[in-house]
Design a protein that fits this description.
Helix content is about 35%, strand content about 10%. It is built from 9 helices and 10 strands. It is globular, with a radius of gyration of 19 Å.
Length: about 325
């Protein structure tokens, strides 16, 4: 079947996007705050024991994140004045109150990231998914005091109904469709896609590909420099996906800090959150939501001068 969720729109044919303060690249950190069940296999650093229950090797590796690793990441984000877009499992919201307290103190953007990272919603029946999403979002709202506006499914999983069900619950964007360097409208009224990355993602780079800390710094630099060059006429989004059990490891921490320093000091970068990116695009997009067929995404110059303070220029 063809993709009905969004239309083909080549980036060379769109109206230009203008970020606040004249920034060329909108940058955000997708900070994954996750809980894993001890009786199910999940992301693993050593596959030979991944099917065991319990699996102390891999479970302990993942559990290092909320216990230790995230506090290093928070220190780095604070040092470079970079806000977090917290991709929060509702189970994590209930189990790790100290992390929630730290995020609330820093005014993080809270996105719903499913119940836990051991439960995927692909193939859920419609009414089961509707109830599941309502429970996840309600739990996060109660824990953080903020109703999420954005969604990313565990392992970026969805059903064909997910975006429409999220719209029913008042959410306005998803990160699951990593198909662009710019936001775009979905064929669901009021719903957008905001870029996320499975490439510029610490699990993929360090765990799957085995890159080193210096490799990571160079990749981040190359990504930003290329997007900055691409954005001479129209703004781009750069997402950096971080997991505390990966980049929170001691021997990787200084390389993350170097990468964040490069981004924070780079001219023309708007240090922001996925919420603010979605809000700005929704407010300034000139093209109405499509009814059928192909279309062009676009945006007009912003009416948001106060946001210029957040731009490094």
């Amino acid at each position: 079947m063809d993709n009905q969720l969004y239309d083909y729109s080549p980036i060379i044919e769109r109206e230009p996007i203008h970020w606040p303060g004249g920034a060329r690249v909108a940058f955000y950190v997708g900070l994954n705050i996750e809980h894993y069940r001890i009786d199910r296999p999940a992301t693993s650093t050593f596959p030979d024991t991944a099917g065991l229950a319990p699996d102390p090797l891999n479970y302990g590796w993942r559990d290092y994140g909320p216990r230790v690793g995230i506090w290093r990441l928070i220190d780095s984000l604070d040092r470079h004045r970079i806000p977090a877009s917290a991709l929060l499992n509702s189970d994590a919201a209930e189990r790790y109150p100290q992390i929630i307290e730290a995020g609330r103190a820093r005014k993080w953007a809270w996105l719903a990231h499913g119940k836990n990272n051991s439960t995927f919603q692909a193939d859920m029946p419609l009414e089961e998914e509707r109830a599941y999403l309502a429970e996840v979002i309600g739990t996060i709202e109660r824990a953080t005091g903020q109703r999420p506006r954005g969604w990313m499914g565990p392992a970026l999983t969805e059903t064909f109904h997910t975006p429409a069900l999220l719209a029913e619950l008042g959410l306005t964007y998803v990160l699951d469709w990593t198909s662009d360097d710019q936001p775009y409208r979905l064929n669901v009224p009021g719903m957008f896609s905001v870029p996320y990355s499975v490439e510029l993602n610490d699990i993929g780079l360090f765990v799957s590909k085995g890159f080193t800390g210096p490799d990571f710094v160079q990749i981040v630099k190359d990504q930003l420099d290329q997007l900055h060059a691409d954005s001479a006429e129209s703004g781009r989004v750069m997402a950096l996906a971080l997991h505390p059990f990966v980049t929170g490891q001691p021997f990787r921490h200084r390389y993350l800090d170097q990468a964040l320093e490069y981004i924070a000091d780079h001219p023309g970068v708007w240090l922001t959150t996925s919420d603010e990116i979605a809000d700005h695009y929704a407010r300034t997009a000139t093209t109405p939501a499509p009814r059928s067929g192909h279309r062009r995404d676009g945006a007009r110059p912003p009416e948001d001068p106060d946001a210029a303070e957040q731009v490094r220029s």
